[in-house]
Amino acid sequence: MLDYMIYILTFAVGSILGLLYSYKQHGEPFVAVTALNVPFAIVSTVGWVLGFCSGNIILSAVGFLLAGFVMGERPGYGRKETAIGLIIAIIVYILLKFNGMM
Predict the structure, then answer these.
(1) Which 3 state secondary structure label does DSSP give 96?
(2) pLDDT for 44-99, tens place per residue?
(3) How many whole angstroms separate alpha carbon 93 and alpha carbon 102?
(4) pTM of the model
(5) How far apart are CA 19 and CA 25, in angstroms?
(6) How many C-alpha atoms does 2 have within 13 Å on its Cβ side?
(7) Cβ atoms of 66 and 85 closer than 8 Å
(8) Which of these, 40, 34, 38, 26, lies nearest to 74 by C-alpha position?
(9) Residues 92 and 49: beta-carbon distance below 8 Å
(10) Cα→Cα distances 15→22, 54, 82, 97, Å
């Protein structure tokens, strides 16, 4: 039970940090960015893979912190990067499950 609380807290902290970072980068009231942010896609992928596949409390917490950072950006930002990270993490999880490594 404590594991899940740690995961939720780190995800919430990551979301808050992502929101603060996003507002620091873009001070405009609303800007729709349609381009893919490759560094954030990598951070999201690493975060979700660590969160789902690490098997370690600390690494999973770090993964959820990274995933929350990208997912918690301003509305309209980070949605593509989060989707890419989740899809890759699910594929890695399924591959590890079928190979018996998890």
Answers:
(1) helix
(2) 999 999 999 888 899 999 999 999 999 888 877 888 899 999 999 999 999 998 88
(3) 8
(4) 0.87
(5) 10
(6) 2
(7) no
(8) 26
(9) yes
(10) 10, 21, 12, 29
- DSSP percent split of the chain into helix, strand, coil, nearest 5: 75, 0, 25
Q: Are 28 and 77 contacting, i.e. CB atoms less than 8 angstroms apart?
A: no
- DSSP per position, 61-93: HHHHHHHHHHHTSSTTSSHHHHHHHHHHHHHHH
Distance of CA 83 to the CA centre of its chain: 9
Q: How distant is the alpha carbon of residue 23 from its chain centre?
A: 18
Place of tokens 């596949």: 53
